[in-house]
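U., I forgot to send this yesterday:
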Amino acid sequence: MSTYAFILGRNPELSLEELIVALSPLGAITEATERFLIFKGEISPVVILSRLGGTVKVAEIQEHFEQLSDFTRDRWLHMLRSELRDVKGKFLYGASVYGGSAADIKEIYALGISLKKYLKALPISARFVSNREGILSSVAVQKNNLINRELVLLHGTQPARLRVDDPSAMTSSTRSRAGVNAGGWYAGLTVAVQDFDAYGLRDYGRPARNMLRGMLPPKLAQVLLNLAEVRASHRLLDPFCGGGTIVQEALLAGMTHVWGTDKDPAAIAEAGENFDWLQSSFGTHRPNLAVHDVHELDRRYDRHFFDAIVTEPFLGPPRLLTRRKLTQSDLADIQRQTSVLYNALFRVGRSLVKPGGAMAVIFPVFRVLDSERLSGNFSSYVAIGWQLVPPRLTQYYPQARLSPRGTLVYSREGQVVARELTVWRSLPR
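Result:
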């Protein structure tokens, strides 16, 4: 059975949760840290990475050892042996160190230079690709053709845990018998990186981009779809589709029964332009688009017509969201406008989604006077038959940073409105 390291993006909690949901049915998760997740199973790394929004790199692990000093130049050379068989021109190779100290990074840099001198004596002209931070980006790996040539070293800082019904119940003797190691170092080679060109095209290359409408990043749309556990055969609805990012990512993931609605005719027109472009560029299916207000959706579609709803509703007017700071007055204004929409969404969603079906919804988190204010009346949603699904990552990564109500939050520096990601299940009546 193969072992892989999934390198997390800038929001480790979000990345870990997505990986746990996506990978758990496929094998065993044995360790999770704020930098990476270790997985054992048989997968196609390139295919699965293309469907993950929160993972930047995948490495196939070849060795595990207790001390970094145990890793030698000869071991590194042995890992590169297949790439060195038919070298033409200059041989490029690189290294990234995750979870290590500054001294660890210097040690690997020195080892990389030593390997370069050794190759020169063979003679093989070589260049060691590195940087001061000790971590090569996906862009650097792709541009320097370092797939299967980038050494990835990972320092495990948390006790690894097998995928079991109750991971917290595992004893040290259980881990020992299962061959699970606490800490230590993993060594592997990069086998897949996030395709930054493809994401740029799907975001900035679309013909209709309306910044005033708010732009959900394609990677975040992927994460939301994965958290909802949608399948290719499912019927999916985004009732606040705007320019169509969530619908776009669902189609690119292989879904064929996708609906996008919005009350704004201009938004649906823009989405139509984008899907003409998407179909010609990627050969995707055509989605079902319609101008509908969320309040009337239960009259437009049959009861329990959809398997899932995935959406980012209106987070607030652009004139307020583009400010550097929000005041109490701003907050009251936004909450008046958004609360009606969320109440309607959960009401009609209860009618539209099949029992047991999922609804993945983003809520705004407002930053007011150096504090964060959550939105949405969760108790009222529970009262009408929705169940909030708690994140699973705390089973593997107990120190995860979550919101006061135990949910995932996505934010970027300088934003006055962050995003709270939630998943709900429609309970049987």
